[in-house]
Amino acid sequence: MTVAQWSVAQGSVAQWSVxxxxxxxxxxxxxxxxxGTSLAASMDDLLRAYPDALAGFNGVDLIWRDDKSMAExxxxxxxxxxxxxxxxxxxxxxxAPQQDPGRVRNRAFFDKMYGDCRRGQVTxxxxxxVWLPRTWGHVVSITSVNGVDRQLxxxxxxxxxxxxxxxxxxxxxxxxxxxxxxxxxxxxxxxGWGAAIDINPGFADYWRWHRPxxxxxxxxxxxxxxxxxxxxxxxxxxxxxxxxxxxMHFEYRPELLDFGMxxxxxx
Length: 267
Ligand SMILES: [Zn+2]
Hints:
The protein has helices at residues 3-9, 12-34, 43-49, 70-75, 79-84, 107-114, 148-159, 164-167, 225-233, 258-265, and strands spanning 54-57, 62-64, 126-131, 138-143, 196-198, 236-238, 249-252. The chain is of the alpha+beta class. It has two domains: 3-67, no CATH class; 107-265, Muramoyl-pentapeptide Carboxypeptidase, domain 2 (2-Layer Sandwich), CATH 3.30.1380. A hairpin with a 6-residue loop joins strand 3 (126-131) and strand 4. The longest helix is centred in the first third of the chain and has 23 residues, at 12-34. The structure holds zinc ion.
């Protein structure tokens, strides 16, 4: 079953999203193939002609007035919503307030992949990994599905080679598996699927702690980007790249990194 077919099978919201995406793709293609040639009408003309339907153009895609907001995507994310925002590997120190690449997760997709923790399906698949064997040396639990445990073990060994000044950010870790919901969205956290780790909470910054007013807070981060790079090379994205930042958080999302492509090519 293709991603699109699977997404359609998940219900009307996902189905609508596929239809909308195909419209956007068609229009974007039309714009690309006509780029450089003279046009009878401008993009502004198009926006003016359909003010009830079109909200704008971001240079790549049309923005439709019925596009799902980020808040709605976080609560009812489809597979396509999950892939919509590009993840900036290598660290982006000032993410836009409403840009959370990777924070949208389709619950049905990940329940199928890792199990539903509320039904006791995740814990049988958890295995121990020694975190920083030469430095901290205690066990954390992580899912064995998709070889996430092997990737975390490789991360652990690699991070253990860093100087002490960098390793202080890594231990004691805040935790890995816990069956819980994300506070503001009510959706399952990647921790609930056993595929996430929080490093030392003593150096963590979280958007809710830096929120003088309004939704997203002032961006703060103390985690060195060399640590982020090690995780990303092994398929984990960083919560510090979210407008709703969570700088101690890393989760296994290889589809958002080149890592996924490399792995596919070598198997
Ligand atoms: Zn976390």
